[in-house]
Amino acid sequence: QELKNGGSSTCKWKIEYLRKSISDLAKKNNFISIIALTETWLKPYMSNAQIDIPSFHVHRSDRTGRTGGGVLLYTHESIPLTNVLTFDDSVCQIVIGCVDSARMIIAVLYRPPETDYQSFKKSIDFIKDYISDICNNDGSYKIIVLGDFNMPNVSWDECRPVLGNSAKTL
Question: Beta strands 160-161 and 154-155: pairing type?
């Protein structure tokens, strides 16, 4: 089904590509359990039916108040995602949920370039609060945070700010 009222959405070509890729992989007996997308550019008036991928559930957080942004998490129907919450402050977006049977929390976050400290802090606090509520100090949960963080001033290999940058300038 075509994306209507939002044909310019970057998600349009991504979904068609994903549908074909998943079908091709399934023919080779490969299994995909989750798919995380950022910068979907979807809007609330676009239905989940328009972005449906067979055998997958759709979880999304669309950016409101301005163009761009947004995150989308597809989970295979064999992987029940519960307690799904979303976050959107018109800057950052998050979808987060729990796979109870695997004791796993999965989050997808989009942080645009040059996001102010307060907005990013609200996003991180949202994830921390969710983890705290779900895990209840149970350290056996696996936490997976996926996304586009737009943090060029981070040395990802060393998990620290690049020399001369503070956490507030990342």
Answer: antiparallel
Contact indicator for 82, 59 with CB cutoff of 8 Å: no
Q: Which two tokens stand for residue 77?
A: 């129907």
Instruction: Give pTM, 2 decimals.
Output: 0.85
- Residue 90's H or E segment, with its range, is none
Q: For the segment 84-112, what is each residue's pLDDT rounded down to a tens digit?
A: 999 999 999 999 999 999 999 999 999 99
Q: Is the dihedral of CA 11, 15, 17, 22 positive or negative?
A: positive
Say how many CA atoms lie within 13 Å of 70 toward its Cβ.
20
Provide the pairing of β-strand 142-148 with 104-110: parallel
Contact at 8 Å (CB) between 134 and 141? Answer: yes
Q: Which of 53, 50, 99 is nearest to 78 (CA)?
A: 99
